[in-house]
Amino acid sequence: MRYETFKTEQEASQAVATRIAELVSANPRIRLGLPTGSTPLGVYKELIRQHQAGLSFSEAVTFNLDEYLGLSGAHPQSYRYFMETNFFQHIDLPTWNRHLLDGVARYPELECQAYETKIQAQGGINLWFLGIGGNGHIAFNEPGSEVNSRTRIVSLTTETIEANSDGRFFKDPAEVPRCALSVGIGAIREADEIIVLALGEKKADAVFNAIQGPFDISCPASLLQDHANVTFYLDEAAASKLTRA
Ligand code: GLP
Question: How many CB atoms lie within 10 A of CB 193?
Answer without folding.
Answer: 17
